[in-house]
Design goal:
alpha/beta; four-stranded mixed β-sheet; two-stranded antiparallel sheet
């Protein structure tokens, strides 16, 4: 999309990140933002910015690990962390509740979201106590694929309908931003 932070793109007069925060804040006891580079660019959002601790930008698992480590240090009573992509402006309002419910029902260690026939492993519920196992997978095994790591554990996958609006739509291109403008009107009506 010509560079820059995708979550800072505007849809319907609000940044994608504002939309993500608005969806997740009522569902979580606190929010942090995993981002590398200058954290000052996110100061207006009032979130703690937590960079990856694993060098070399190894992908989303490093962000999940950063969140698990931050939580273990700063919120030691918290057992679960939700991760969500910062470029998904229409996240479900029942995301955390449904992930937890299905994880419990399936007696699973982890839970991830899906819509239609597609899994969205970045959007998931992670047990904080698995952080050292995740660190080993990232640093020692050089594992980068989320689904390869989650396959090691009992996993619950929770599916949402993709119509009339896929709640996990993500904005990756200029065309996606144009589609998101149209979808924002549908989302406002729901």
């Amino acid at each position: 999309m010509g560079g820059g932070d995708k979550p800072m793109r505007t849809i319907g007069g609000r940044t994608i990140l504002e939309r993500v925060i608005a969806r997740l804040a009522p569902q979580c006891s606190g929010l942090i933002l995993n981002a590398n580079g200058d954290p000052a660019r996110f100061v207006a959002f009032g979130l703690q910015v937590v960079p990856d601790e694993v060098p070399g930008f190894p992908g989303p698992l490093a962000g999940i690990l950063a969140a698990l480590d931050w939580t273990a240090t700063n919120r030691p009573g918290v057992e679960w962390v939700l991760s969500a992509a910062g470029d998904c402006p229409f996240l479900p309002r029942d995301l955390v509740a449904r992930l937890h419910e299905e994880r419990i029902a399936a007696n699973a260690e982890l839970a991830v979201a899906a819509s239609g026939d597609q899994s969205h492993p970045v959007i998931g519920l992670w047990r904080v106590s698995l952080r050292n196992e995740l660190r080993h997978a990232l640093v020692v095994e050089d594992l980068r694929k989320i689904d390869r790591w989650t396959a090691r554990y009992p996993l619950a996958t929770v599916t949402w309908p993709a119509e009339p609006l896929d709640p996990f739509f993500n904005a990756n291109t200029v065309e996606d931003i144009a589609d998101a403008e149209r979808l924002a009107a549908l989302d406002a009506a729901s």
